[in-house]
Specification:
The structure is a homohexamer of 294-residue chains. With 294 residues, chain A is mostly helical. Chain A has 2 domains: 19-207, Up-down Bundle (Ferritin); 217-262. Helices cover 47% and strands 4% of the residues of chain A. Chain A has 10 helices and 3 strands, in the order βααααααααββαα. Chain A has helices at 19-30, 35-47, 55-81, 98-104, 109-121, 148-172, 176-202, 205-209, 280-283, 290-293, and strands spanning 2-4, 228-231, 256-259. Chain A has a two-stranded parallel ribbon with strand order 2-3. The radius of gyration of chain A is 27 Å and the shape is extended. The first copy, chain A, starts with a strand and ends with a helix. Chains in contact: A-B, A-C, A-D, A-E, A-F, B-C, B-D, B-E, B-F, C-D, C-E, C-F, D-E, D-F, E-F. The interface between A and B is large, with 121 and 121 residues. Strand 1 (2-4) of chain B pairs antiparallel with strand 1 (2-4) of chain F, so a sheet runs across the interface.
Chain lengths: 294, 294, 294, 294, 294, 294
C-alpha cells in the first residue's frame, strides 16, 4: 500500500509560461516513452513477479513508487506553462498572458489553438494523460512478461527512449526552471538505465541470461538457424559486422551468414467451404440466384 | 523496394487442426510481442536511420524483410488450424471437423465460439492482425527513437518477449508440424537477440554507449542524483543488490542509496481564471444566477 | 425505429469562417465529453434498460434522438467554418478565403495545416467523428451499466463536462452565428443536467439510491470501512471537510477518519513454474545450455 | 511524492484458484469502471486543481494514493487465481492444478484458453492492465475537466459503476478469500460515493452548483430552451415524470415540455471546390480525361 | 433533426436464449462491418456532402436514419439472448436459465464466462458498442472522404462485408426468431449494396467516375505507370488475368505488365545532428563523458 | 518469403524541406487511407485466401509486396522534409534550416511545434506509423473478410480514398521532387483501382457477384425488403434517383420505395434480476438498508 507527501520530489518552477512547451512536455507524461509507462510497468512487473525470493518484487516497488512523483512533477510543469505564473507559483496578472488571451477570446488565438487544444478545452489548462499530439496513453505499452530478464531489457529500452526524450526537451527548453527540472529527470533516467542492467549482471550477465528465456532447453530449438544472419538482399550482398562472424554474444555459438531462400512450399488452403460466406467462385459453385433458390 | 517468393520461409503443416491453438498463435502475429511489431519496427528504424554510414540502415532492412516471412508463416498456421487440413495442405473431409460444425450450424458450437469468434465471423477462418484476445495491433508499439542504441535495446526487448511467447506456444502445442515451425522461430529469435546485442557491442558496449543518449554532456545532468538508488519504503528498508553499491555499469560512477524525501514544495496553482469554465468557488466568486445576470 | 427531417434542430450560420474554430468544435463532436458520446450513451442505456416499466427506456429514447440533431448541427458548423460561406449558406467567392489558399496551394499554408490537417486531407473540408486533436472517438466511453442510478450519474457527469466544454467554446467564439448556436446548446445541457438529476430524485434521491447499487445487502459489506476517510499522508495530516465528520450523505452512517496502514501482509507468489517461460533463476534452476540439452 | 509499504492494504487470499474468476477480476483492474481509472483520475484532478485553496488538491491526493493499493490487491488476486495457491500464499503442488495443465501441455486446455489467453501467453500467469476481454485500459477515460463540480460527478459515476461491478464479482465469487476482499472493496466504494457527494454538498449542493459550470452567466444561455423536456416521438407522446413539470432541480426554473420540431433550415454547403479532390460532378464540371488533359 | 417510434423496425424474438450467440451478434453491432459503422458513416457523409444539389445528402440521411433502427434491433436481440425470455418478451422463470446461473453464482459458470464477460460484468446483461471479442468500436472506421464516388465504394464495401457477416450469423443461428430477424437484415444489405452502386451508375458508372477522383487532370499523373501491373516475384513469374492485358476498366488505357525493379537510388540521410538526442556514433563524435564535460 | 533491394522504387528528392508538409505526408503512411493499410490488407487477404486455385493469392502477393516500397518512399520523404537536404540526399548546412532551429533551441519554435511534435520528440526527425494528427495506425482497418468480392470492393474503396488523398497532397505540394513522387503514386493508385475492379469483372461483374456473398440462397432472404428504398423522412418526401425505380443493378429485381414504419413492437425486457447489480427499483424491491440487512 502507499503514502504520499504533498510536496514535490524536486522543485518545479516556470518563470516564463510557454504553452507550446507544455504540449511538448505531454510526451513525457503520456507518450509511449513517458513516465506513466515506466511507473505502471514497474508496478505490474512487481505485482506479478514469481521467484524464489521477493527481492526483485521489492526493488521494483521502490522505483515504481518513485516514478509516481515524476508524473506529478511533469503534470505540475504543464499546468504552470499554461498560465502566467509569477514567483512562488501564486497566480497574478494573468490578464495579459498569451493563454489568457485564448481563454478570454482575444487575439493571438490561431497559432495557439493548434498547439494546445485539448489541454484547454477538455482539462481547463491542466495536464492530461496523453502524448504531445493529444493521443491518450494506451496501457498495452505496459510490458510485464513474467520473465525477469525480458522485463529488464524492456525497462532499459523504456529508460533509454525516456532519456532521449528528456534530452530533446532539455535542448528545446528556454526557461531555467524547466531546464533544472529536466536535468534532474535526465539524471534519474541515467540511474534507472544502470539499475536494470545491474539486475541483468546480477543474474549472470549476457552469458548467463541469453537466450531469453534461458529455461528452455536450447537443444530443442533449430540448431541450424540460431546463430546465422539471414541476408535477404536480392543481389546477394551482405552487411558485414559483429553479427556475421565471430563468437556469439552468449558464447554458445559462432555467427555465420545464410543467403535466405524458401525452405517451405507454396501454401494451398484449398476451396472455401459452403455456408462460410465466401463467393460461389471460391467454393467452386455457380452463384445462387433467385431462380435457383426457388 | 521488395520482391516475394510465394513459397514459405519454412514448412508449415498441421496434422490435427486446433481452433484454440489458432487463437493462441494470434498473439504471435498481432500481440505486442508478435511479428508484425518487429517487422515494422525494424523497417521504420531503417527508413529513419541517420548516421555517417548506411550500414545499420542496410542491416535492419535485411532482418525486417525476413520478418515479413514470419508473419506469413504464422498466418498460414492460423488458417490451417481453423480447418481439417490433410497432407499437402489440400482440403478434404472438412464436414466432420470441429470447425465445420461451427460454420455449418452443428453441435459443439458453444465452447468454440468463445475461443475463435472474430477469426470466423470477420475473416472467414483466417488470421487477422490482432492478438489472442482479438485486440487489433496498434502501431504505437513501433519503437524507432532516432537513437540507435535505444533502438537496439528496444529490439532486444522485443525479441526477448517474443521468444518467451514462442516458448510458451511451443509448450502448449501438441501437433508435430506446429512444434517444428515453432522450434524454427525460437531459433530465429535466439539469433535476433544476439544480433541487436552485437550492434551494441560494436558501438562500444555498455561503457561506450551508456547513458543513452551518450551525446548529451553528462556534466549537465544532476550529478548528485544519477547513480543513487532511491529507497521509497515508508519504513526505510532498502533492497540491497548490485544496484546499491559498487561501480556503476557504465564505470562512470558508484552506486549509493538515497532515502527518498521531498526536495520540492507543495505546488500552488492558485485560483482559476474567470471565463475558464471552472466553478465559481474555484474562481473565488459567487455563482452566476438568472437574477444576477439580468 | 427512427425518422428524420432534413432541416436542422436550430439555426447554424457562420459569417466569418474560422478553420481553427472548426478544429475546436471537433471536441464537441468526438471528444469524450462530446455529443456522439451522449447520443450513443442514452441509446444504449435505453435499449438495455431492465425495469418493471418501460418508462425510463422511453424517456431515454426521447433525449437520445434529440442528441443526433446536436451532432448534425456541430458537423454543419465545422463544415461552414472550413470555407468562405456567404449568407444562406450558399458558396461563392471562395477563391480568396484562407482555406481556399490551403487547398489551392497558395501561401498561408503553414500555420493552417497544423490546425486542421485531417479535416482537409481525409474528409475534404468536413467534420469527422474525432476530437480537437484528431483522435477518433472510442465507443468504450458509452457508459451503460445496467444500473439506472449509476447511469444517471454517468449522464450528469457527461452533461456537466459537456456544458463546461460548450462554455469554453462560447468564450472562444467570435462569430455571432456560432455564439448563437452555442448559447442554444448550453441551454440544452442545462436541461439535461436537470433531467438526469430529476430521475434520481424520482427514484428516492440520495438517501433512497445510495450506496449504488442499493440492491446489495449493505450488511454484507465491511461495516468498519464504509464511512471512514482514509488519510494516506506520510505525516499524518488530514484534509478536514464535510467528508471527515458528521452524518454521511445517505444518512446511514457517520463520517470518521482512518490513518491508513497495511491490514494485510506482503504477498508471496513463490517460484515460477518450469515450462512457464520464466528465467531459470525464477524457477530456481540453472540455465539451460546447448551442452546440458544434448 | 510517494512512499510504499510492501504489505497489502487488506488481506488477499485464495483457497481454490479459479482462472475464469481471474479473468473476471481483470475488469476491476483495467475496465473502464476499474481501479486504474479512479486512481489516475483522482491524481490528475489533484495535480491540475485550480482553486483559492489547495484543500481539494490535498484531499484528492489522499484517495488517489489509497487507490494504488486497490490495484495492487486485485493484481495479487489475479495472480493467485491463476495458480494452485496453498495457505500463506506459498506455492506448492502446482503440478495437478488446472492451470499447470495448460502451461505444461496437458489435457483440459481448450476451455481454459478461451478464458485466460493473454494472462498466460503474454504475462506468464499474472495480472495485466486490461479488462476482462483483454482490452487494454485507455487513458482517455481519465476525466479531469478543470471544473471541480463536474469532476465530482465524474467521480460519483466512477464509484457507482465501480461498486456495481464489485457487487457482481462478489455474487460470482465462490472463494471465501475473494468474497472477503470484495466485501472490503465494496465498502470503500460506498465511502467514496459519499465522499465526492460530500464535496458537492460542501460547495453548495445542487442549488449552489447547478448548472455546471456555475460561473457562466445563465442569462447568456437560451432561456427558452433550458428547462423544457424535448419530446421527439413521432406520435407526440410524452414520458411524464419529475422532468416534465414542477420546479427544476436547481430551483431556477420550471420544467415544461416541448414537442420537438426543426427550428433551423436545411443546410446547403454548395458545390465542392476545384482541386479539393472531389468528383467532377460535385464541382459541377465534366470529368478530366486523358484527352482533355493534353 | 430526428424523431423516434418506440416500436422496432422489424420483430425481434428469441425462444431459446443463447449467451454465446449474443456475443456473436455483438460483431454486427460494434464490429468494423457492423451497424454502428454504416449508420455513422452515412450520417457523416451526408452532413459533409458538398455538391451542386442536396440530393445525395438527402438520400444518405434516409438510409442513415434507417440504420439506427438496425442497431436497436440487434441490441434488443443481444439483451434477449442473455436471459430466459418467454413469449411477448416478458421475463419469467429466469431462475433456471443458464445465465441466471452465472449471475447467481451457480454451476456452469466457467464455460459461459469466457464467452460473455463484459456484457454481464459491465452492462448487466445488455448489448455494448463493441465487437464479438469485446473490442469497443473505434470511430476511425467512419469513412467519409469528401469524394462521393470514393464514399460510395466505401459503402459498397461496408454492406458487402456486412452481408457476409449476417449470412454467417444466419448459418450459426438456431432460434427461429433470430433467423427471421437476420433474413430481414440480409435483405436490407442486399438493397443497400444495390443502392450505392446505383449512385455510381447515375454518376456515369466506371467509365465516368474512374479514376477517382475524376477531377484531377490525368495528364498530370505518371502516364507510364498507370495501367501496368507490377510483377514483384523474384522468379519473374506473372499471375495472368483480366488485369495483365486488354483494355482498362475505365476504357482509357491498356493493361500491361512491368517486371518491377528499382527506379530510384539508395536514400542517404547522412549523419544525425548534434543535440538531436542521437548516439555520438550517429553524429560522428566521441561519446560525452563525465570528464569531457568538465 | 521476401527479398529487398536497398534502392527506392522511385526517386524521392526534396529541394526545400518543409516540416509541415512532412506532417501532411504522414497521412499517406499511417492514415486510414494510407499505404500501411493497403500493404497489410493485401497481405492478409492473400495469406487467408481460400479458393480452388491460388491465382488470387498469388496476384495479391505481387501488389502487397509493391506497397511496402510505397511506405518506404513516403517514410524517406518525411525524413527529408524534416531537414535541410541538399542534392544527392547528403546532409550539409543544416544549421540554418528551420528544423535545425527547433532542435537547437532557437527562435521560430512555436508555430513549428504545433505541426510536428512527435516526429521530432519521439522519432528524432523521422517518419512514424501514424497519421497527420499523430494518431497511430490501428490494424483493425485491415479488411480481409474471406469473401473475395467483398475484399475487392474494400480494395477499390482503399485505393479511391488513397488517390483522393494523394491528389490533395499533390495540390498542396510546392517542391518539384515531392510533386514528382506523388504524380507517380497517383498513377499507381489509378492502376490499383483498375486492378481490383478487373477481378470483379473476371468473376462475373455486378450481375455475377451481387448480392455479396452470392453463395447464400437469395430465396432465404426477406424477398419483400431486398429491392425497396426505405424513405424515413417524417414528411414522407422521397429522394428520387436511380435507386427508387427501374431494374436493380444485379438485374434480379426492381427498385421500389417503401415509406418506412415500424413492423415490430415495443420491446419489453422486464424487471432486472435480483443479484444482478441493478437498483432495487429496477428489480421491483425496496432498497437494502443497514437495518434490513441485520
Amino acid at each position: 500500500m502507499y503514502y504520499h507527501d504533498k510536496r514535490l520530489q524536486y522543485p518545479v518552477t516556470v518563470s516564463e509560461p510557454d504553452p507550446a512547451f507544455a504540449r511538448a512536455l505531454q510526451q513525457a507524461i503520456g507518450g509511449v516513452e513517458g513516465e506513466i509507462r515506466v511507473c505502471m510497468q514497474y508496478f505490474f512487473q512487481a505485482w506479478g513477479n514469481r521467484a524464489p525470493t521477493t527481492k526483485y518484487r521489492d526493488m521494483l516497488l521502490h522505483t515504481a513508487t518513485e516514478e509516481i512523483g515524476h508524473i506529478e512533477m511533469l503534470a505540475t510543469a504543464v499546468a504552470l506553462n499554461l498560465e502566467k505564473a509569477p514567483s512562488h507559483l501564486q497566480e497574478e496578472g494573468v490578464k495579459d498572458s498569451i493563454v489568457g488571451a485564448v481563454m478570454g477570446g482575444e487575439n493571438p488565438r490561431h497559432q495557439i489553438e493548434g498547439v494546445i487544444h485539448k489541454n484547454l478545452l477538455s482539462a481547463g489548462m491542466a495536464a492530461m494523460p496523453m502524448d504531445s499530439d493529444g493521443v491518450p496513453f494506451n496501457m498495452s505499452h505496459i510490458y510485464a512478461s513474467g520473465n525477469v530478464a525480458a522485463d529488464m531489457y524492456c525497462n532499459v529500452a523504456a529508460e533509454s527512449t525516456g532519456r532521449v526524450l528528456a534530452v530533446r526537451l532539455f535542448n528545446m527548453a528556454h526557461d531555467e526552471g524547466m531546464k533544472k527540472m529536466l536535468h534532474y529527470m535526465i539524471a534519474r533516467d541515467t540511474m534507472h538505465q544502470q539499475q536494470w542492467l545491474a539486475v541483468i549482471e546480477e543474474l549472470g550477465a549476457e552469458t548467463g541470461n541469453l537466450p531469453i528465456p534461458n529455461s528452455f532447453p536450447q537443444s530443442q530449438e533449430d540448431n541450424e538457424n540460431n546463430y546465422n544472419f539471414y541476408a535477404t538482399a536480392a543481389d546477394g550482398s551482405v552487411p558485414e559486422g559483429r553479427w556475421t562472424n565471430g563468437p556469439s554474444i552468449d558464447g554458445r555459438g559462432e555467427f555465420t551468414v545464410f543467403q535466405n531462400k524458401p525452405l517451405g512450399e507454396e501454401p494451398v488452403l484449398g476451396a472455401a467451404r459452403p455456408e462460410s460466406g465466401a463467393q460461389a467462385a471460391q467454393i467452386g459453385e455457380a452463384p445462387q440466384t433467385l431462380d435457383s433458390n426457388r
